[in-house]
Amino acid sequence: MLKHKSAIITGSTSGIGLGIARAFAAQGADIVLNGFGNAAEIEALRAGLEREFGVKVRYSGADMSQPEQVRALAELARAEFGQVDIVVNNAGIQHVAPIEDFDDAKWNAVLAINLSSAFHLIKAVVPGMKARRFGRIINVASAHGLTASPFKSAYVAAKHGLIGLSKTVAVELAEHGITSNTICPGYVKTPLVEKQIADQAKAHGISPEQVVREVMLSHQARKEFIQVEELAALAVFLASDAAASMTGTALAMDGGWTLH
Fold it and tell me: Active site residue: 155, 187, 225, 257, which one?
């Protein structure tokens, strides 16, 4: 479905981003991975994807909070593959604190990585997409792009902003064969969330099962974690020719969280 296409996926050395990278590679796309982690483990991951799926996989350790490094990431993809057909803006960080205690530097970092990085990467790849009259921009927001929770002011602001950015890009580029859509997941059982379960269980003196049921999934009508593979399948569809008329959408895959 994605053979002869190339994709940049930010925040793709683990979790949702890695799941999307695997799904794209399985469909024949060449991939640029991006994210932090152990260098040897990332190289093993990169090489493993190449062997398993027979595609080209490159890696960039670009810090997505730095605009010049975001632009260098786009240049790397162009140099390696000749073009960038698909961008998945998935990189993100979180910080939780009451608004009056929210650290200024944390606010700036959350907005830089969760929102501004998407702007800089989209800006870098759009000229080439326009020239070829094809492009797929997929932004991974959150249910928090559609609703709010306490103590997450920066994250909620950034994810709402990401949906607004995506809609604006969709309107600007619709006549150039470029689509822009947003995926809004509920809680996904990634390594990061696994750690949060353990930390919250310890902090609140409750069991991990209670954390999942009473804290994390309390707002989801379907009391189960969203699966990475489900999100990856949606991203593959949005990147495909079948989704050519779908643009400017914010698609909730949240187990019914935002129905309330």
Answer: 155
